[in-house]
Design goal:
The complex is a heterodimer of chains A (616) and B (575). Chain A starts with a helix and ends with a helix. Chain A contains 20 helices and 13 strands. Helices cover 54% and strands 12% of the residues of chain A. Chain A is α/β, with parallel strands linked by helices and 616 residues long. Chain B is an alpha+beta fold and 575 residues long. Chain B has three domains: 250 residues, no CATH class; 143 residues, Immunoglobulin-like (Sandwich); 57 residues, no CATH class. Chain B starts with a helix and ends with a helix. In chain B, α2 packs antiparallel against α4. Chain B is elongated. Chain B is 22% helix and 32% strand.
Chain lengths: 616, 575
Amino acid sequence: MSRLGLEIYAKWRTGWVYGTRSIGWLPLLSLLVSVIGALWLAVLPLDGQYRYTYVSENALLPGQAHTHFRESEWNHVRAYKQEIQAIVNSEAGGHINEQERISHVRGYLADIGLKTSLHEWSVDHFSESYNGTNVYGVMHAPRGDNAEAMVLVAPWINQDGEHNVGGISVLIALARYLKRWSVWSKNIVFVIPSDSGFALRSWVTAYHTSLALTAGAIEGAIVLDYPEASSEHFDFMEVFYEGLNGQLPNLDLINTAVIAASTENLATVIQGVTEDDESFVKKYMPESLKEFFGNQQMDVLNRYANRLKIMLSGMTRQLTTGISNSPGSEAFSGWRIDAITLRARGTTGPFDITTFGRMAESTLRSINNLLEHFHQSFFFYLLLSPTKFVSIGTYLPGAVLVCASFPLTAIYLYATKPNRSTSLVKSFFIIIAVFGACTTIGGVLTVVPTSAVGPVLTSLFVISACLPILSVVAPSPPPHPASAPAEPNVTLAISLLLHGLVTTALATINFSLAMVLGLLTVAFNFIRPGSAHTKSNLLILIITCPWTWLVAVGAVLHTSPFDILQMLLWSLRGNQVWTWQVLFGLWLPQWVLAVIVSRSSTPAPAQSTVGYFRKQ
Amino acid sequence: MKLSILLCLALVACVLGYSENLSLRPLSQKYLHASFEFEAESEPFNTHPVAHHDEFPRILSQIITQSDAREIHLRFAQGFWDAEEWGVLPHNGAFAGGTGIEAWAWIEASSKQEAKKKWFGLVNSLSGLFCASLNFIDSAHTVEPQFTFKQSSTGSNGANETTAYLFSGALPAEPVCTENLTPFIRLLPCKGKAGISSLLDGHKIFDSQWQGMAIDVHRECTDEEACKMVLKQTVDAVVDVPRQLRRNKHPIPVPLYGTDFRCDTSKPYANDYICFPLGDPTEVSWSIREIFGRPIEGACRIGQGSVNLDVPDGWKLQSKSGEDGEILDTYPTLSLANTDSLDIILSSDNATHVSPVSSPPVFAQRSFSGHGQQRGGVRTAFTNPSSEPVTFIYSETLPWFMRFYFHTMKLKNVDEFGEESEGTFEVLQYSKSVDRKKPTHFELKMTIPARYSATLGYDFDKSMLYLAEYPPDANHGFSIPPGVLTVVDSNGTHTMSTRTTALILSLPTPDFSMPYNVIILTSTVIALAFGSVFSLLLKRVLSQEQADYLSSQTPLKKLLAKFKRKKVTKEKKNQ
């Protein structure tokens, strides 16, 4: 039994206070709560725990309008596809430069009768620069009030770095076709950004700050992605919906696209997985067990496993969108614009490129019906399949439970601190100093040239690696009676309380980030100051270290941790993703505090706590 | 006899003041601008307002008498006027309004309070007359511009020299539709049965790219102490000709058949399955029957009617009189004389060749900047494409819930090489908003140098409204009236006016089901608290013995006790 445990046992035996029994259970409760929190996620995809999606905004009328982008319109799509493919080829062959390419594309939109304009963008950091030129055209709604707009986007280069030939040709053909309708109540903006990442993000920012040609408040946006140039057929439609910093579009928009697809018997897929795929359960379960469950039970299990997989990969995408992948729709995050990316998948299916265009047409018709901005339905949800979801009320307890484990430990640590008369000021001072230092380092790294980031980070890595080792190797400083040091228990308690508070708040904004961060740092709960816990502390410090996880993620993705940090930095510059700040402003300082606390020794009690409590 | 009556009628028509004119002007990019103008004059009157009503509508006359209005201007507009392609607005913007409805009037009164009261009466009457929500123009929507508008009333015989107060209001969110067109047509002497007004079919007029209606009443006085009211009604529409013609064939734009395709066969890949679309054919031929759904149903015999065709050389103009009349070549100016229906056919080998448009001296584009529910900004870009500086008055009205910061207003000039500099503007008038009572209103005068563009920017805070102040469909946002831009020349004459677009401002909007949740929750809490407190107050606090005693004194208990006692005595007896 550890020293702390003995102390508590002793206090309990001496009849300390009535609540001692429960305080003694707090660490266990904290562990229990975090385990329940983690298991909560596994419960969500169970039958009966999720709900089926439904269209909340009656005005949308998804799939009700008859779509006519078909038959002979295909001939035009084919022609535009030929044109775009020719431009791609001649650009690759060096026959035309970027400016000529842009003027060609702009010409197609202008010929249709749209007001066109260019937007030159760049995301710079010292000598490094991402830049390009976006083309866009505005179709003014006939007799519209010119105050609202919908956006249709086809990036020149899609999220996988492929030329989006199909998407752009569908976009131009749609522009021509939609111009013939007089039903529009909102303007339609057709955008061809140079890529789906920074280019589109810069365009959206410029639309709200500096562009001369604008078309009013954007109510919704659809990004088209059809990179398969060889075939004009596809199997199913994939929908990407994750935004930046954990933001999601209104669920009604996804529902609209899904319903539009289902009216044509087109299957919609999210996260690349369908419920009926062969899951790991079916793959790896021994035959004997399979026989034991029987076919029907196996199907239920298989579907559950797939829903779990969709949910978890949805959370992963929520965490990484804007950092490592950018389907395009995330560029609209933060401007109160709901956006989704539609992507055609496969080459052999019964659906043709005009079906894909009809999906955009039908969804635009629905958005066009909206009188109010998207506001009904859900903004916080986890999708388990295109038609099944879990809303915030059901999933949030998971993250809250994990995050609640920190304050529970904090209460325990504070209640069992050996020294009654310690001042909180010193602990606060240490915490503020560590947070300040880490945030400053994080802030400085965002403004220094990339060449300087490497050395700074390397030294940080080294120092961080040394810190836990130091805490083992170096003898703990003896307690100094003259200047009572900050009590490690109290420091840890306050830092854990803070951690719990911030991660819980974070969970309501960015559930995935809070959940992952909470789970990765849950071991902070088991750090105990003092040399008696050196080995367990060292293990905890290693598994909660941000660098450990950066290296681990890097190993999985076959990149160096520096590259991941660079991605975080660029996502901050170009996409305003604040995961970097969470790393340097929350995780790292908490970890440094844990290191400091774990190597400091508990000062000797100045007076009997037992007596103090008795007086109460 | 018949002839003499006709002659008589014609004479009367000449004497009495009513005229109508339709002018058709093909624009570039396959559009057609149709402009209907109707002008009616009242009988001259001296001191008392009009007594007889021939052409001048009696209902308007009554409203004018009631409200003591010297001038009334009403604008209905919808759509986007493409100034780059179509040039200045029709009539230099004199009869064009911003999106939605706009109204302004000069009211004669001895004091401003009195005038304002009459103004509210006036907009309420107009609201009923034109089936528009003009009654929503209350004090929070009313401004008093001093420089943007000028009186059209002329003459100085005393009648126009009394004090008149100008009030103006705009409702940008008001949709303009057939219910506004019908009362408009009813004011005309021929009421859409004859004359050019017979072309005003809501289905066709409102299926246009841009459309505006205007009603203007002003007073003209001569030196002989006689005044008359002049009513001008205009309808302007920009029609997408190919779409209109296509809709006659296919009401919805279904895919075309192969035979109707216009493909670029010069493309190397061109075949039966791949068709690079060519634009609309440059060879056009259409008639007003195809565009407006019917021909002109003969002349409106009260007054004079004419049709003006503004086309350059190369266009062929033909007309057809009657149902099965001959198609004859015609002049660009036609005067409507008989009761036969008249169809006009325009055709050209090169429809892109149109009459030159006069480029506007300044372009204006306004949009919101910033994001979030707390604050925002407005950015208005003015571009002077000409080689001469342009001076104009720019006026904006901002609702009170847009908390405008005057000190943040900045003008940034950018010359043709992209060099930026601080611009200056003169504040002609600024009236600060009062919550729920008065909007912010300012009129600025600025000069943009040749080939410069300038950006006027300012910041504002969004305020929270009371629950009841949110309109239905609150998440739509609030429409901000268009800015009015009036170009002035060196003499101070207004040469052109235009409007910026309306904006949609999204304010922090509550979840409207939330108040009900709150009401239910608080009611439950109050019921619980009340219940317990109520029972505490009414119940007496007693000791156990007292309570036992009191409970034993109830009639039921007494009865029971009696039985018990009897039982006990019986048992005792038995023993």
